[in-house]
Design goal:
single chain; 322 residues; Glycerol uptake facilitator protein; globular; Aquaporin-like; transmembrane; transmembrane helix; MIP; MIP_CS
Length: 322
């Protein structure tokens, strides 16, 4: 199944960043253009995601009051819409260039799997936090032009995720660890299987649509420190923010450990830009990149990867027949 092709305006901006895997190039240890694209993509995630959450959950909004009578449906729809906001961000030219991690937990998982070096992981995480702040700032700023929007946004603290009243703090932390671990494991498993790889940019909406009715009442199901930091900054609510830093990072790390222990079977993973969009990030313009623009030194590696995947599939087919 092919993803629908979205036609975006053509930007004549040149990108010549090297692939992120491996040691940084001595003449170019940083990849500022990729960090910038990741920042903008994360801002898109926040604008679309927070707008949906505010409309769906704010008291006295045109749909919030109706959904309040059905909290499980409300939670599921909030998860679906915020997850699909990640898909929208990934499909922008910025997301396609950076690979659209959009989440420090995802970047950490790629770093622990040695698919991105630590200096680039740090650049991505800082970019994600800045992007989350910028995206929330746009949502906040809209209140100066629409008074009703300001009322709705304030009522839900700009879509902030906070531990629910009466829930023990360690229970909320455990929920964030569990949800993030499951999210990373799901992304890894899908990305490692060519038959299902096409769904990886869309899985966020499906995942949180299922998980939110089950666990969102505990901690809000953030699984993303940047997503929690932005709204908390503007709402001035720092209560429990450490949960959304520590929980997702622990969950991401545990998921990688489980995957490396082959608990989910043999999984060979590539970096997000190659998984989702078929390129390493070296693209001539900020339009739809393809693998033909990847750095030449990685052609053979990519061919070997495809050959290994094909052999594994044949082996599994033979085992199933037996």
């Amino acid at each position: 199944m092919r993803l629908p092709h979205i036609h975006w305006p053509h930007f004549h901006i040149h990108f010549h960043d090297r692939p992120l895997a491996g040691e940084p190039h001595p003449e170019r240890p940083f990849h500022w253009r990729l960090y910038g694209c990741e920042m903008v993509a994360t801002a898109v995630l926040m604008v679309v995601g927070l707008a949906c959450v505010i409309l769906l959950s704010a008291p006295h909004s045109w749909i919030g009051d109706h959904l309040a009578l059905h909290p499980a449906i409300q939670a599921a729809l909030c998860g679906l819409c915020f997850g699909l906001a990640g898909t929208v961000a990934a499909m922008t030219p910025f997301g396609k260039v950076s690979g659209a991690h959009l989440n420090p937990s995802v970047t950490l998982a790629f770093m622990l799997s040695k698919k991105i070096v630590w200096i680039d992981a740090l650049g991505y995480i800082i970019s994600q936090i800045i992007g989350a702040v910028l995206g929330t700032a746009l949502v906040y700023g809209a209140g100066y032009f629409l008074s009703s929007w300001k009322v709705h946004a304030l009522a839900v603290h700009y879509g902030a995720t906070v531990p629910y009243t009466g829930v023990p703090v360690w229970f909320a932390l455990g929920s964030e660890i569990l949800v993030t671990g499951l999210l990373i494991a799901t992304l890894y498993w899908l990305a490692a299987h060519p038959r299902f790889k096409w769904i990886t940019p869309w899985i966020g909406g499906i995942f949180f649509f299922v998980m939110n009715p089950l666990t969102a009442w505990i901690s809000g199901n953030s699984a993303n420190f940047a997503r929690s930091f932005g709204p908390d900054l503007f709402a001035g609510n720092w209560n429990g923010l450490w949960i959304y830093l520590l929980g997702p990072f622990i969950g991401s790390s545990l998921a990688v450990i489980a995957i490396q222990a082959d608990i989910l079977g043999k999984i060979h993973l590539m970096e997000a830009r190659l998984v989702n969009f078929g390129h390493h990030g070296r693209v001539p313009h900020m339009d739809d990149p393809h693998f033909v623009h990847a750095a030449p030194e990685h052609y053979e590696e990519y061919k070997q990867h495809l050959q290994m995947i094909s052999e594994l599939q044949k082996q599994r087919t033979v085992e199933d027949d037996i």
